[in-house]
Amino acid sequence: MNYKRILIAVDDSSYSMKAARVGFEMAHKLKAEVGILYVISKMKEQANPDLGTTEHQQHNLLLAEAENAIRQYIDLYDGIDKVYRFTPEGLPEAEIIHVAKEWDADMIVMGTHGRSGLSRILTGSIAEYVIKHAEIPVLITTPRMK
């Protein structure tokens, strides 16, 4: 398969840093375009009266956080001619699948926290959902990868 568009799904975790590194390295070697996806979770977008923030203000803070994270990833892994930026709102697992289809990605690269047992059952696994529902290859980086 010829990989021309690699979608890298990130957040602000160290797990995403590894995924971004691997995704950009692959894109360099394959001369592929890169899309960076940071989903703004609707779960975090609630107003916080204790802090005096409205839902709109919270949304703007989350959007700024997403854009800052994407900019940092791009700055760290410079060298790709064009990097597409995606900051959709919603459930991360659904948005990763949606953006991959809409952008016509050939591969998804993302990190995983490597949770297992009760922790995974309680929190779910975005990576597991993406693997099961993606129609393209998914490369998962783990905490144990170097």
TrEMBL record:
The keyword Cytoplasm applies. It holds the Pfam family Usp. InterPro entries: Rossmann-like_a/b/a_fold (IPR014729), Universal_stress_UspA (IPR006015), UspA (IPR006016). Keywords: Cytoplasm. It comes from the Bacteria. It is found in: Cytoplasm. Belongs to the universal stress protein A family. This is Universal stress protein. It comes from Olivibacter ginsenosidimutans. The lineage of its organism: Bacteria, Pseudomonadati, Bacteroidota, Sphingobacteriia, Sphingobacteriales.
